[in-house]
Write a structure and sequence with these properties.
By secondary structure, this protein is of the alpha+beta class. It has 3 domains: 42-133, Quinohemoprotein amine dehydrogenase alpha subunit, domain 2 (Lipocalin), CATH 2.40.128; 152-249, Quinohemoprotein amine dehydrogenase alpha subunit, domain 2 (Lipocalin, Beta Barrel), CATH 2.40.128.120; 255-420, Glutaredoxin (3-Layer(aba) Sandwich), CATH 3.40.30.10. Helix content is 21%, strand content 41%. It is built from 5 helices and 26 strands. It has helices at residues 2-31, 298-314, 332-346, 360-366, 402-420, and strands at residues 42-49, 54-64, 67-74, 77-80, 83-87, 90-95, 100-106, 112-120, 123-133, 152-158, 165-173, 176-183, 186-187, 191-196, 199-205, 210-217, 223-229, 236-242, 255-257, 267-269, 275-277, 287-293, 319-327, 352-357, 378-382, 388-393. The longest helix has 30 residues, at 2-31. It starts with a helix and ends with a helix. 39% of the residues are buried. Mean pLDDT is 92; it is low at 1-33. Residues 1-36 form the signal peptide. GO terms for molecular function: antioxidant activity; oxidoreductase activity. This is Thioredoxin domain-containing protein. Keywords: Cytochrome c-type biogenesis, Disulfide bond, Redox-active center, Signal.
Length: 423
Protein backbone atom coordinates (compact mmCIF):
# COMPACT_ATOMS: atom_id res chain seq x y z
CA UNK A 1 0.00 0.00 0.00
CA UNK A 2 2.75 2.44 0.91
CA UNK A 3 4.71 1.54 -2.26
CA UNK A 4 1.58 2.23 -4.37
CA UNK A 5 1.12 5.63 -2.77
CA UNK A 6 4.78 6.42 -3.38
CA UNK A 7 4.37 5.60 -7.07
CA UNK A 8 1.29 7.87 -7.32
CA UNK A 9 2.89 10.84 -5.53
CA UNK A 10 4.98 12.21 -8.51
CA UNK A 11 1.92 12.14 -10.75
CA UNK A 12 -0.15 13.89 -8.08
CA UNK A 13 2.52 16.58 -7.68
CA UNK A 14 2.54 17.21 -11.44
CA UNK A 15 -1.23 17.63 -11.47
CA UNK A 16 -1.07 20.05 -8.54
CA UNK A 17 1.74 22.07 -10.19
CA UNK A 18 -0.20 22.33 -13.44
CA UNK A 19 -3.30 23.45 -11.57
CA UNK A 20 -1.33 26.11 -9.70
CA UNK A 21 0.20 27.39 -12.95
CA UNK A 22 -3.23 27.61 -14.56
CA UNK A 23 -4.57 29.43 -11.50
CA UNK A 24 -1.67 31.89 -11.62
CA UNK A 25 -2.36 32.67 -15.28
CA UNK A 26 -6.04 33.15 -14.50
CA UNK A 27 -5.29 35.48 -11.60
CA UNK A 28 -2.86 37.47 -13.76
CA UNK A 29 -5.49 37.88 -16.47
CA UNK A 30 -8.15 38.84 -13.94
CA UNK A 31 -5.88 41.39 -12.28
CA UNK A 32 -5.50 43.25 -15.60
CA UNK A 33 -1.69 42.77 -15.82
CA UNK A 34 -0.47 43.06 -19.40
CA UNK A 35 2.53 41.37 -20.98
CA UNK A 36 4.86 43.11 -23.45
CA UNK A 37 4.02 42.14 -27.01
CA UNK A 38 7.41 42.76 -28.61
CA UNK A 39 9.00 45.73 -30.32
CA UNK A 40 6.52 47.49 -32.60
CA UNK A 41 7.28 49.63 -35.68
CA UNK A 42 6.29 53.28 -35.46
CA UNK A 43 7.41 56.73 -34.38
CA UNK A 44 8.64 57.24 -30.82
CA UNK A 45 9.79 60.17 -28.71
CA UNK A 46 13.05 59.01 -27.13
CA UNK A 47 14.49 60.84 -24.11
CA UNK A 48 18.00 60.32 -22.76
CA UNK A 49 18.50 61.09 -19.06
CA UNK A 50 21.67 63.19 -18.95
CA UNK A 51 22.94 64.44 -15.55
CA UNK A 52 21.75 68.01 -16.23
CA UNK A 53 18.46 67.16 -17.94
CA UNK A 54 16.73 65.18 -20.66
CA UNK A 55 17.68 65.14 -24.33
CA UNK A 56 14.74 64.32 -26.63
CA UNK A 57 15.19 62.86 -30.12
CA UNK A 58 12.86 61.21 -32.60
CA UNK A 59 13.06 57.44 -33.08
CA UNK A 60 11.45 55.89 -36.14
CA UNK A 61 11.24 52.09 -36.32
CA UNK A 62 10.46 51.14 -39.91
CA UNK A 63 9.83 47.74 -41.47
CA UNK A 64 12.20 47.33 -44.41
CA UNK A 65 12.41 44.01 -46.21
CA UNK A 66 10.55 42.26 -43.42
CA UNK A 67 12.86 43.49 -40.64
CA UNK A 68 12.83 46.57 -38.41
CA UNK A 69 15.32 49.34 -39.15
CA UNK A 70 15.83 52.22 -36.71
CA UNK A 71 16.35 55.88 -37.56
CA UNK A 72 17.21 58.71 -35.18
CA UNK A 73 15.30 61.79 -36.30
CA UNK A 74 16.59 65.34 -35.85
CA UNK A 75 14.22 67.49 -37.88
CA UNK A 76 14.69 66.68 -41.55
CA UNK A 77 17.77 64.57 -40.86
CA UNK A 78 17.36 60.83 -40.37
CA UNK A 79 20.39 58.91 -39.11
CA UNK A 80 20.08 55.20 -39.76
CA UNK A 81 21.38 52.93 -37.01
CA UNK A 82 24.32 50.97 -38.38
CA UNK A 83 22.72 47.84 -36.96
CA UNK A 84 19.19 47.20 -35.67
CA UNK A 85 18.45 43.92 -33.90
CA UNK A 86 15.11 42.77 -32.49
CA UNK A 87 15.04 39.67 -30.29
CA UNK A 88 11.66 39.17 -28.67
CA UNK A 89 11.07 42.21 -26.46
CA UNK A 90 14.65 43.48 -26.83
CA UNK A 91 15.74 46.18 -29.27
CA UNK A 92 19.44 46.88 -29.87
CA UNK A 93 20.72 49.81 -31.91
CA UNK A 94 24.45 49.66 -32.60
CA UNK A 95 26.74 52.37 -33.94
CA UNK A 96 30.06 50.48 -34.23
CA UNK A 97 31.79 53.40 -35.97
CA UNK A 98 31.42 55.21 -32.62
CA UNK A 99 31.48 52.04 -30.46
CA UNK A 100 28.13 53.01 -28.93
CA UNK A 101 24.86 51.11 -28.40
CA UNK A 102 21.28 51.62 -27.25
CA UNK A 103 19.58 48.55 -25.74
CA UNK A 104 15.91 48.65 -24.74
CA UNK A 105 13.14 46.32 -23.57
CA UNK A 106 9.57 46.65 -24.80
CA UNK A 107 7.14 47.41 -21.97
CA UNK A 108 3.50 46.27 -21.60
CA UNK A 109 2.25 49.78 -22.50
CA UNK A 110 4.18 49.71 -25.80
CA UNK A 111 6.98 51.99 -24.65
CA UNK A 112 10.68 51.12 -24.61
CA UNK A 113 13.14 51.58 -21.76
CA UNK A 114 16.82 50.79 -21.53
CA UNK A 115 20.39 52.03 -21.43
CA UNK A 116 22.55 53.78 -24.00
CA UNK A 117 26.29 53.16 -23.75
CA UNK A 118 28.07 56.19 -25.16
CA UNK A 119 31.80 56.35 -25.86
CA UNK A 120 33.83 59.13 -24.26
CA UNK A 121 37.53 59.77 -23.64
CA UNK A 122 37.43 58.32 -20.13
CA UNK A 123 35.54 55.21 -21.25
CA UNK A 124 31.94 54.09 -21.78
CA UNK A 125 29.19 56.26 -20.28
CA UNK A 126 25.86 54.55 -19.45
CA UNK A 127 22.75 56.71 -19.93
CA UNK A 128 19.20 55.61 -19.14
CA UNK A 129 16.55 56.31 -21.76
CA UNK A 130 12.88 55.75 -22.54
CA UNK A 131 10.88 55.93 -25.77
CA UNK A 132 7.12 56.52 -25.96
CA UNK A 133 5.23 55.63 -29.16
CA UNK A 134 3.00 58.07 -31.00
CA UNK A 135 4.50 61.29 -29.63
CA UNK A 136 5.58 63.66 -32.41
CA UNK A 137 6.46 66.66 -30.22
CA UNK A 138 10.06 67.21 -29.09
CA UNK A 139 10.10 69.59 -26.10
CA UNK A 140 6.59 71.03 -25.66
CA UNK A 141 3.48 68.87 -25.96
CA UNK A 142 1.20 71.94 -26.08
CA UNK A 143 3.44 74.91 -26.92
CA UNK A 144 2.26 78.46 -26.36
CA UNK A 145 2.11 80.84 -29.32
CA UNK A 146 5.52 82.31 -30.11
CA UNK A 147 6.01 85.89 -28.90
CA UNK A 148 8.91 86.65 -31.23
CA UNK A 149 10.87 85.21 -34.14
CA UNK A 150 13.81 82.92 -33.44
CA UNK A 151 14.67 82.10 -37.04
CA UNK A 152 17.72 83.77 -38.56
CA UNK A 153 21.46 84.02 -38.03
CA UNK A 154 22.70 84.91 -34.56
CA UNK A 155 26.16 85.50 -33.16
CA UNK A 156 26.30 83.20 -30.14
CA UNK A 157 28.97 83.30 -27.46
CA UNK A 158 29.37 80.71 -24.75
CA UNK A 159 30.30 81.93 -21.28
CA UNK A 160 32.75 80.53 -18.75
CA UNK A 161 36.47 79.79 -18.65
CA UNK A 162 36.81 79.12 -22.39
CA UNK A 163 34.27 81.31 -24.23
CA UNK A 164 33.73 80.55 -27.90
CA UNK A 165 31.91 82.47 -30.60
CA UNK A 166 29.75 80.71 -33.15
CA UNK A 167 26.89 81.24 -35.57
CA UNK A 168 23.45 80.02 -34.49
CA UNK A 169 21.69 79.22 -37.77
CA UNK A 170 17.94 78.63 -37.31
CA UNK A 171 14.98 78.08 -39.62
CA UNK A 172 11.56 78.52 -38.04
CA UNK A 173 8.29 77.15 -39.42
CA UNK A 174 5.11 77.44 -37.35
CA UNK A 175 6.99 77.16 -34.09
CA UNK A 176 9.17 74.26 -35.25
CA UNK A 177 12.92 74.91 -35.35
CA UNK A 178 15.78 73.35 -37.32
CA UNK A 179 19.37 74.47 -37.57
CA UNK A 180 22.85 74.16 -36.11
CA UNK A 181 25.63 76.17 -34.50
CA UNK A 182 28.89 76.67 -36.40
CA UNK A 183 31.96 77.24 -34.25
CA UNK A 184 35.51 77.68 -35.59
CA UNK A 185 36.16 74.15 -34.30
CA UNK A 186 33.18 72.69 -36.21
CA UNK A 187 29.40 72.59 -36.10
CA UNK A 188 27.15 70.83 -33.57
CA UNK A 189 25.33 69.01 -36.40
CA UNK A 190 21.55 68.76 -36.85
CA UNK A 191 19.53 70.62 -34.20
CA UNK A 192 15.75 70.32 -34.01
CA UNK A 193 13.31 71.85 -31.56
CA UNK A 194 10.34 74.06 -30.80
CA UNK A 195 9.26 77.50 -29.63
CA UNK A 196 6.84 78.05 -26.76
CA UNK A 197 6.02 81.66 -25.91
CA UNK A 198 9.34 83.47 -25.44
CA UNK A 199 11.21 80.21 -24.79
CA UNK A 200 12.71 77.70 -27.18
CA UNK A 201 14.74 74.50 -27.05
CA UNK A 202 16.85 72.54 -29.54
CA UNK A 203 18.59 69.17 -29.36
CA UNK A 204 20.56 66.71 -31.44
CA UNK A 205 21.65 63.08 -31.04
CA UNK A 206 23.39 60.85 -33.59
CA UNK A 207 23.76 57.61 -31.64
CA UNK A 208 26.75 58.78 -29.59
CA UNK A 209 27.11 62.57 -29.54
CA UNK A 210 24.32 64.87 -28.43
CA UNK A 211 23.52 68.22 -26.85
CA UNK A 212 20.59 70.36 -25.69
CA UNK A 213 20.33 74.12 -26.19
CA UNK A 214 17.61 75.94 -24.26
CA UNK A 215 17.01 79.67 -24.48
CA UNK A 216 14.70 82.62 -24.07
CA UNK A 217 14.15 85.77 -26.11
CA UNK A 218 14.51 89.00 -24.13
CA UNK A 219 13.09 92.47 -24.67
CA UNK A 220 16.51 93.83 -25.69
CA UNK A 221 16.49 91.49 -28.71
CA UNK A 222 19.04 89.03 -27.34
CA UNK A 223 18.71 85.31 -26.79
CA UNK A 224 20.10 83.86 -23.59
CA UNK A 225 20.20 80.33 -22.35
CA UNK A 226 22.12 77.21 -21.40
CA UNK A 227 23.40 74.10 -23.09
CA UNK A 228 24.63 70.70 -21.92
CA UNK A 229 25.82 67.35 -23.21
CA UNK A 230 25.93 63.76 -21.98
CA UNK A 231 28.70 64.14 -19.40
CA UNK A 232 28.20 67.76 -18.29
CA UNK A 233 27.67 68.18 -14.55
CA UNK A 234 26.51 71.78 -14.92
CA UNK A 235 25.09 73.63 -17.96
CA UNK A 236 27.08 76.20 -19.93
CA UNK A 237 25.52 79.65 -20.26
CA UNK A 238 25.41 81.49 -23.59
CA UNK A 239 24.11 84.73 -25.09
CA UNK A 240 23.32 85.62 -28.72
CA UNK A 241 22.35 88.66 -30.77
CA UNK A 242 21.40 89.01 -34.45
CA UNK A 243 24.55 88.86 -36.56
CA UNK A 244 25.57 92.16 -38.13
CA UNK A 245 28.06 92.95 -40.89
CA UNK A 246 30.57 94.22 -38.32
CA UNK A 247 33.96 92.44 -38.37
CA UNK A 248 33.50 91.42 -34.72
CA UNK A 249 30.36 89.48 -35.68
CA UNK A 250 32.06 87.30 -38.28
CA UNK A 251 32.94 83.66 -37.59
CA UNK A 252 35.38 81.69 -39.73
CA UNK A 253 33.83 78.29 -40.36
CA UNK A 254 37.07 76.65 -41.50
CA UNK A 255 40.38 78.09 -40.41
CA UNK A 256 43.41 78.32 -42.69
CA UNK A 257 46.91 78.20 -41.24
CA UNK A 258 50.30 78.78 -42.78
CA UNK A 259 52.40 75.62 -42.44
CA UNK A 260 55.27 75.96 -39.94
CA UNK A 261 57.45 73.71 -42.13
CA UNK A 262 57.72 73.10 -45.87
CA UNK A 263 57.75 69.31 -45.68
CA UNK A 264 56.59 66.63 -43.29
CA UNK A 265 56.92 62.88 -43.17
CA UNK A 266 55.44 60.09 -41.08
CA UNK A 267 55.13 56.33 -40.96
CA UNK A 268 52.26 54.60 -39.17
CA UNK A 269 50.52 51.23 -39.49
CA UNK A 270 47.20 51.16 -41.29
CA UNK A 271 44.11 49.53 -39.78
CA UNK A 272 45.40 46.11 -40.92
CA UNK A 273 48.91 46.59 -39.52
CA UNK A 274 50.72 47.47 -42.77
CA UNK A 275 53.22 50.36 -42.40
CA UNK A 276 52.40 53.32 -44.63
CA UNK A 277 54.72 56.29 -45.13
CA UNK A 278 54.15 59.62 -46.81
CA UNK A 279 57.46 58.96 -48.62
CA UNK A 280 56.17 55.70 -50.17
CA UNK A 281 56.46 55.58 -54.00
CA UNK A 282 52.68 55.62 -54.49
CA UNK A 283 52.56 59.22 -53.22
CA UNK A 284 55.45 60.55 -55.31
CA UNK A 285 54.26 63.20 -57.77
CA UNK A 286 50.72 63.09 -56.35
CA UNK A 287 48.60 65.63 -54.55
CA UNK A 288 48.08 64.25 -51.05
CA UNK A 289 45.33 65.30 -48.65
CA UNK A 290 45.97 64.19 -45.06
CA UNK A 291 42.78 64.12 -42.97
CA UNK A 292 43.63 64.16 -39.25
CA UNK A 293 40.76 63.06 -37.05
CA UNK A 294 39.27 60.24 -35.02
CA UNK A 295 36.23 57.99 -34.95
CA UNK A 296 35.04 59.75 -31.77
CA UNK A 297 34.82 63.11 -33.60
CA UNK A 298 31.35 63.84 -35.09
CA UNK A 299 32.70 66.45 -37.54
CA UNK A 300 35.22 63.85 -38.74
CA UNK A 301 32.25 61.63 -39.59
CA UNK A 302 30.80 64.46 -41.69
CA UNK A 303 34.16 65.04 -43.38
CA UNK A 304 34.46 61.32 -44.21
CA UNK A 305 30.97 61.36 -45.70
CA UNK A 306 32.25 63.97 -48.19
CA UNK A 307 35.86 62.86 -48.56
CA UNK A 308 35.38 59.13 -49.24
CA UNK A 309 33.48 59.53 -52.55
CA UNK A 310 35.54 62.61 -53.47
CA UNK A 311 38.80 60.67 -53.14
CA UNK A 312 37.48 57.90 -55.41
CA UNK A 313 36.27 60.37 -58.02
CA UNK A 314 39.56 62.25 -58.35
CA UNK A 315 42.08 59.47 -57.76
CA UNK A 316 42.68 58.99 -61.50
CA UNK A 317 43.72 62.66 -61.72
CA UNK A 318 46.50 62.13 -59.20
CA UNK A 319 44.80 62.69 -55.84
CA UNK A 320 45.70 60.52 -52.86
CA UNK A 321 44.12 60.74 -49.41
CA UNK A 322 45.50 59.48 -46.10
CA UNK A 323 43.58 59.45 -42.83
CA UNK A 324 45.59 59.91 -39.63
CA UNK A 325 43.55 58.52 -36.74
CA UNK A 326 44.12 59.92 -33.25
CA UNK A 327 41.80 57.90 -31.04
CA UNK A 328 40.61 58.01 -27.43
CA UNK A 329 42.93 55.14 -26.51
CA UNK A 330 46.59 54.41 -27.16
CA UNK A 331 45.75 50.71 -27.60
CA UNK A 332 46.68 50.13 -31.28
CA UNK A 333 44.52 47.01 -31.62
CA UNK A 334 41.39 48.74 -30.38
CA UNK A 335 42.08 51.85 -32.46
CA UNK A 336 42.61 49.70 -35.55
CA UNK A 337 39.35 47.79 -35.02
CA UNK A 338 37.49 51.05 -34.47
CA UNK A 339 39.00 52.56 -37.64
CA UNK A 340 37.95 49.52 -39.69
CA UNK A 341 34.36 49.99 -38.52
CA UNK A 342 34.57 53.69 -39.40
CA UNK A 343 35.90 52.86 -42.87
CA UNK A 344 33.12 50.33 -43.41
CA UNK A 345 30.39 52.83 -42.53
CA UNK A 346 31.60 55.42 -45.04
CA UNK A 347 33.04 53.08 -47.70
CA UNK A 348 36.50 54.56 -47.24
CA UNK A 349 39.11 53.11 -49.60
CA UNK A 350 42.08 55.30 -48.65
CA UNK A 351 44.29 54.10 -45.76
CA UNK A 352 43.44 55.03 -42.17
CA UNK A 353 46.69 55.10 -40.21
CA UNK A 354 46.78 54.48 -36.46
CA UNK A 355 48.74 57.56 -35.38
CA UNK A 356 48.24 57.47 -31.61
CA UNK A 357 46.06 59.04 -28.95
CA UNK A 358 44.02 62.23 -29.31
CA UNK A 359 44.86 65.29 -27.27
CA UNK A 360 47.75 67.74 -27.16
CA UNK A 361 50.42 65.27 -26.03
CA UNK A 362 49.38 62.48 -28.38
CA UNK A 363 49.12 64.71 -31.44
CA UNK A 364 52.52 66.32 -30.73
CA UNK A 365 54.07 62.87 -30.53
CA UNK A 366 52.47 61.87 -33.84
CA UNK A 367 53.23 65.13 -35.69
CA UNK A 368 56.15 66.89 -33.98
CA UNK A 369 56.83 69.00 -37.10
CA UNK A 370 53.43 70.65 -36.64
CA UNK A 371 53.59 70.77 -32.84
CA UNK A 372 50.45 68.63 -32.82
CA UNK A 373 46.88 69.61 -33.70
CA UNK A 374 44.28 71.47 -31.65
CA UNK A 375 41.17 71.10 -33.82
CA UNK A 376 39.55 67.95 -35.23
CA UNK A 377 39.41 67.52 -38.12
CA UNK A 378 42.59 69.19 -39.33
CA UNK A 379 43.41 68.76 -43.02
CA UNK A 380 46.83 69.02 -44.67
CA UNK A 381 47.27 69.77 -48.39
CA UNK A 382 50.52 68.54 -49.97
CA UNK A 383 51.40 69.38 -53.57
CA UNK A 384 52.97 67.19 -56.26
CA UNK A 385 56.47 68.26 -55.19
CA UNK A 386 55.84 67.03 -51.65
CA UNK A 387 55.49 70.50 -50.14
CA UNK A 388 52.95 71.20 -47.40
CA UNK A 389 51.03 74.07 -48.95
CA UNK A 390 48.29 74.88 -46.45
CA UNK A 391 46.45 73.61 -43.37
CA UNK A 392 42.69 73.75 -42.80
CA UNK A 393 41.15 73.40 -39.33
CA UNK A 394 37.57 72.52 -38.42
CA UNK A 395 34.68 71.56 -40.66
CA UNK A 396 31.30 72.91 -41.74
CA UNK A 397 29.08 69.85 -42.07
CA UNK A 398 25.91 69.37 -44.12
CA UNK A 399 23.75 70.71 -41.27
CA UNK A 400 25.18 74.19 -41.96
CA UNK A 401 23.64 74.38 -45.43
CA UNK A 402 25.28 77.20 -47.40
CA UNK A 403 28.41 77.13 -45.23
CA UNK A 404 28.88 73.48 -46.15
CA UNK A 405 28.41 74.21 -49.86
CA UNK A 406 30.97 77.01 -49.64
CA UNK A 407 33.45 74.85 -47.72
CA UNK A 408 33.26 71.91 -50.12
CA UNK A 409 33.51 74.23 -53.14
CA UNK A 410 36.65 75.85 -51.71
CA UNK A 411 38.10 72.41 -50.93
CA UNK A 412 37.47 71.31 -54.51
CA UNK A 413 38.97 74.51 -55.94
CA UNK A 414 42.14 74.09 -53.88
CA UNK A 415 42.57 70.44 -54.87
CA UNK A 416 41.96 71.31 -58.53
CA UNK A 417 44.60 74.04 -58.35
CA UNK A 418 47.16 71.63 -56.88
CA UNK A 419 46.32 68.91 -59.40
CA UNK A 420 46.86 71.36 -62.25
CA UNK A 421 50.45 72.00 -61.15
CA UNK A 422 53.33 69.97 -62.54
CA UNK A 423 55.25 67.51 -60.40
Amino acid sequence: MNRSLARQRPFTLLVVAAALAALLLLLTACSGAKQAEGVKPGQYRLTLDFPVGQLPVGLDLVEEGGVITAYLVNGGNRTRAESTTVEGNRLTLAFPSYDSTLVAEAQPDGSLSGTATLRRKDGPVPVKFAAVPGQAWRFYETPAAATGAIGGTWLLETQGDEPEKGLLLVKETNGVLEGTIQFPTGDVRYLAGQVSGDEFALSTFDGNQGSVWRGKRFADGTLRGENFGATAKTPTKWIAHPQSAAPADQVVAIGEEKPPVERIDFTFPDANGKPVSLSDPQYKGKVVVVAIGGTWCPNCHDEALFLAPYAKRRKAEGLEVIGLQLEYTDDPARSAAQSRRFAQRYNIEYPLLIAGKSGAEGSKKALPQLDGVRVYPTTLFIDRKGRLRTIHTGYAGPATGELNKKATAEFDALVSELLAEKA
